[in-house]
Specification:
The protein is mostly helical. It contains six helices and two strands; from the N terminus they run E-H-H-H-H-H-H-E. Strands 1-2 form a two-stranded antiparallel ribbon. InterPro entries: DUF7704. Keywords: Membrane, Transmembrane, Transmembrane helix.
Length: 174
Amino acid sequence: MEPASTPSSSTMAWSTLPTWPLILFGIIEPLLLVWAYIISILDPHRFYTMQVPHSPVEPSDLQPQALVLTLQMGNVLLLVAALAVVCCWTPRPATSRWYLVAVALADYGHIYGTYAGMGRDAFCDVRGWNDAVWGSVGASAFLNVFRWLTVLGVFGGLTEEGGGAGMVVDKKRV
């Protein structure tokens, strides 16, 4: 009688990303996104007004449409955090690669949206940026560079199924 599960000689990694990109995109970035989500839900007015520094908005000025969009933006942040975890902690290299490409391209729209809202002068005045702008522009630009470096294999290639970072577990015969 054969045991219920017999370990095979092959192993499977939890991720095909090299270690540093896995830590950055599979742990740090999702935690930051969840934190931004929490801020947007706990204090949507502050989250909304922080998007453009030096442009105060009174509590009565927060229109219902702005509140809806602010809360929906928070929800999108939570969604992207979940997608980051799923797409970075996968044994399929194509999933991680195309996720990084898609999010790298979205970074440009994210940065442009901040630029368009702030205006050229405020956008170029880096000393006047607040935490929200540093997150929207600075963090997005930083992550964008590392996304492309990861896709290009600078930290090591995205390995085929069975290799990569993360805890290695034995594949079981079914």
